[in-house]
Structure formats: structure tokens, C-alpha cells
Amino acid sequence: MRDITFTTVIAEDEDLIRSGLVRKIEQSRQSFAVVGEATHGEEALELVRRIQPQLLITDIRMPVMDGLKLIEEVHKYFPRTAVIIASGYADFDYARQAMKFNVKHYLLKPVKQLELAEVLNDIRAQLSNEPIVEANDIEKTVQRVQQYLREHFHEEISLEQLARQFNFSSAYLSKIFLKHAGEAPSKYIATLRINEAKRLLKHRKDLPVKAVGEQVGYGDPFYFSRIFKQATGMTPRDYQK
């Protein structure tokens, strides 16, 4: 099996239980590294957004955002992140609800070292068996992303939405796009929008600046003017003259 370290985030509001999980994961020697810890679901979701971990271990009952809502959000926006529930016996019915979000593993507190090791071994096999994309396929994928953006740049597109469209994590898509296109997806979208705005301002002088901004994906005219001036050194109105 390939020598890979799998990044892990733990969401648990009780400090002793959370630190115990971290220690047991380290002792399991299963190539999982805890890269983030959260005391409630909202904090955990922010970590998942920022780190894009391969594994999330979460409790069910937590303040601010509970584990079920966290699992739902992770399933929706980060489908490649595997999830393990570590919770009490009384939460088992809630844990069953999480199955509709593709959660297959439930550990009963207090988590036993052997049970944790068995589940981590299963998760490791699952993650290790994900298909590996070869270099030519990656380049073709980036070209497909560019084509998609050329056709949809006038729409509201977030990095997360774009990543889901091509079944990648946003972090991975950004990485391969930057490597093969030489710029971030957001910069590519902005360039497409500014170039189209310049064309419309030059050839469609009957269009108000606000309408031009809307046609290229900027609903806020003030934001459009600021972005346009940053890119061209001129306001859209001055460019149109």
C-alpha cells in the first residue's frame, strides 16, 4: 500500500475526549494525522473548508452546530471527505440518520483503541483505492474546466461549485488548475469577465455600465467598477467613452 498520510479533523466539544481521540489515532499507526481540532460543528466546518481533510471524526451533540448538520454540509460540499461518528449510545438513532449522507462508520464512546484501529484501517483502504489521475488526464481536465468557464463565466460560480461540477475537492482543483493553466480559477474567471466587459463597453455603447456588469457576472455595479479599474486602470464609464 502506498505510504500516504491522511489528513484528519476532529470535532468534539469535550476536551478530554478530543485529546484522547488524538492520542489513540497517533497510537494506531494507521497513517492518519490530526491537522485540526474543533469544539463545535461550525468551527469544524470552517476547518474542513480551509484544510479539505480526507477524514472527519465528529460527535453528534455539539453546541452552535450539531454533528448531523455538520455531516450534511460536508456531504454536500466535500463529498470526498470520509466521515466517522464517535458518539454516545443515546445518539445511535441520530447516527442512523447520517447514513443517508454516506456515513458508514459509528464508534461508541468511550472509543476503544482496537475498534478505532479497525475503522481507520477500513477508511484507509477506502481512501487508498480512490482512482489516481495520470498527467495527461489532469491536463485534459484543466482544459475542460477552462471550456466550462468560458461558457459559464457570466454566471455566479464559486470554487466549491466548480469543484463539485468536476468531482474534485476545491483544494485539488485549485492546485492542478494553477499548475497547468498558470493562474488560479478565480483569476481566470475574472480575466474572462473583464475581457467581455471591455468588448461590450467598446461595441455596445448603448448599454449602461450596470447592465454590462450584470452581463459578465457582476451584479453589484460598484464592485464591477472597482474590479474593472484594478484590471485596466480605468473606470468602465471612462473606458466606454
UniProtKB/TrEMBL annotation:
List 4-aspartylphosphate occurrences by residue. Answer: D59
Q: In what residue span(s) does the HTH araC/xylS-type domain sit?
A: 143-241
- Keyword line: DNA-binding, Phosphoprotein, Transcription, Transcription regulation
- List residues of the Response regulatory domain: 7-124
Highest taxon above the source species: Bacteria
The cross-references to SMART domains, in alphabetical order and at most eight, read: HTH_ARAC, REC
Mind telling me what this protein is named?
A: Response regulator
Organism field? Cohnella cellulosilytica
